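User: My collaborator and I are trying to settle a disagreement about how two of our proteins should look. Neither of us wants to argue from intuition anymore, so we agreed to look at predicted structures for both before our next call. Could you fold the first one, then the second, and keep them clearly separated?

Assistant: That sounds like a sensible way to settle it. I'll keep them separate. The first protein:
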Amino acid sequence: MQATPLAGDLVLSAAFDGVNVAPTPFSATYSAGIVGSYRQEFGAGALASCPRDAATGACTVYLGVTALSTGTAFSLVATVDGGAPLPTRLVEGRTTRGAALAGQYTYYYAVLNASADATVTVTVAELAGTAAVYMNANATLPSRGLYALAARTVQGTKAITLPPGSPLRTPAGLLTIAVFGASDTRYYITVSTSATVATLADGVPMEGSLALRATAYYSLPVPPGAGDVTFSTATLAGRTQLYIAK
């Protein structure tokens, strides 16, 4: 990690004990100022005591930049040498736009709170190029040679479905997903359950994708004294129907 003062002076503080998430020069495990060239390096030995995320195996380093003079401005950069790629967390019911280069993987994970009798669906709608989708129901990142389920294509949308009672459903609710670029590809990816109800925000678009005959559910909080409420959909591919109840 390297901080570069553009104006004024500063101290860069770091901690990775999992407790101190707002390090200062007085509470940090490590700190560096002008004497240390505003630079901190942590080897594998130093990071061995860092708590690991159960889903991703990642260790989180928390940083604090403290100004020592008025009008301090700086740039900050952090680099990681090697290590396994970190997956992006998917929020249940919320579509994420992604991309994968040809021959490369982009990884995701989701932790679901749905009951065992809910159907879990992962969908990938390609915007450009061609992708393959693989999934594991544990912390192991899937690949073309190591996966529990692979997506099938239904009317242009790739989908993986975990039905109720599937042996792949675990109490932890953890899913790991890999999107492999058969060519350079861009896509929407969504993980949802039959119990998912996503909350809409006033005036904020939400993108989605669905497998054939699947349904996505949404809710909108309407404040007291509100005027007209309007819902509109713009279909990018396929055909959809919109149903509303109050």
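The second protein, kept apart from the first:
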Amino acid sequence: MTTSTPPAYRPTTDPGRAARLREAFLAAGYTADGCLDLLGATAYAALARGETVPALRATRSGGPLATMLRLFLLQDAVPYAAAAAVLPVDECLADGWLAPYDHAAGLLCATVDVRPYANDVFGGGAAADAWIVSDLGCAVGGAAGIGAAGDARAGVARSELVLGVGGASTTLAGITVRRPARSVLDLGTGSGVQALHASRHAVKVTATDVNPRALHFTRLTMALSGVVNVDVAQGSLFDAVEAETYDLIVSNPPFVISPRAVEGAAGFTPGERLTYRDGGMPADELCRRLVAEAGRHLNEGAFCQLLANWLHVRGEDWRERLSYWIAGTGCDAWVVQREVQDPAQYAELWLRDGGEHQAGRSAYSARYAQWLDAFDAMKAEGVGFGWITLRRAPARTQPIIRIEEWPHPVEQPLGPHIERWFQRQDFLRAHDDAGLLASRFRLAEDVVQEQVGPPGAEDPEHVVLRQNRGMRRATKVDTVGAGFAGACDGTLAAGEIVDAIAQLLGEDRLLLRGRVPASIRLLVEQGFLEPAG
């Protein structure tokens, strides 16, 4: 079989040609919903895990949609005639979307991954069909599907790979606060996933990346999806937008803490750094700098939301470490640590992500040892993963910083709940204890009460309030707290409810008024109670 090994392809972003390709996708049903209908839930879920066999089996019968799936998502070669039946095939060949695979057999292959994507604003409007363009093999399974030397078929070095949609991408998209914006910055855009979402609720989006290939792929994603309000700029961190401020900054940065994060690290040759994940700075310095510099690029009340990794250093409290990152930014902050891995777990995860488990036992063991040596040198006991939300605080106010660990399931999209969390902080900041007692509250609609104790007991041992939405928190309350929360329907001031409870329980009214505000603050901060009106 004679196959071609062309140089790295750069498909065109010409709007007219991209529109014709988009029309072909829509005519074939090559959309997120269409793929789910054809593949079924089992094969579709397997794709998210990097497994393509179920999808290949589901597309054996052929047809326009099966041809699209095999070409652009499963990287299978298809006959020229099959491609020509569903695509403007000569344009796709001329523009670099397709290439000859086997001249003798008349087979064609795709040069890039094109993944159908439902571009919505997570509850803020109907989904729009979109397509994410990434390097071959990187829309399904990440870079581990590429092997140690890169993808020879596309002539792409692994260090320049551009990944498609992954779990981190969808997590960030789900936690992002969605509201109308004049300007949004997607820092470290990759294939343009976050910029695509932002394009639905912003007048203008700027997407930056240090990798020129990533910027080209972002242009492809926008052109193919019919998006016209996204510009791109090359640069690290805020270098390309130094003088600009934004209504929203989102970033899924190269946060991986690896021994080859810096070019020339011991044991690694130049060019080995994986740009999509290794930030080019020691340890967690890139994430620290992003947080430290974000505040001056935010308009008042604007949000910066990012995913990050941070070290757990021997002898240091990780919360204090992150507080140091945030200090001086002028921002309120909510940091949520979702997971902690020990150095061995962390090394295994990212060695596999980079496909290094395919390099042979000896080479893999040597790389593994280098990672552990690097963590020893950093005095690292573990690595935390989570999300950081900053909001430019009102002038002349003391910023509020909340850093917590929450490994439990949450409801996505979480963006609306995050926005309300900051709104509640504004309320609490503006009300002293007397102000809280004079205010009216409502019990959040999603809260239920659980009573815990031995069966048949006259009184429960304790009462738990539990949320079924958002962060899905649970908090233990006493009899007074349960009675207070249950009475909050927005009609009576908090102080009036406290006085009624004091009379009912025969307690001192003034002592109870002095005790309850602290509980009110906790219940409001965590979202069990909401200020009425």
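Some points you might bring to the call about the second protein. The chain has three domains: 15-111, 166-414, 431-531. The CA atoms of residues 153 and 500 lie 76 Å apart.
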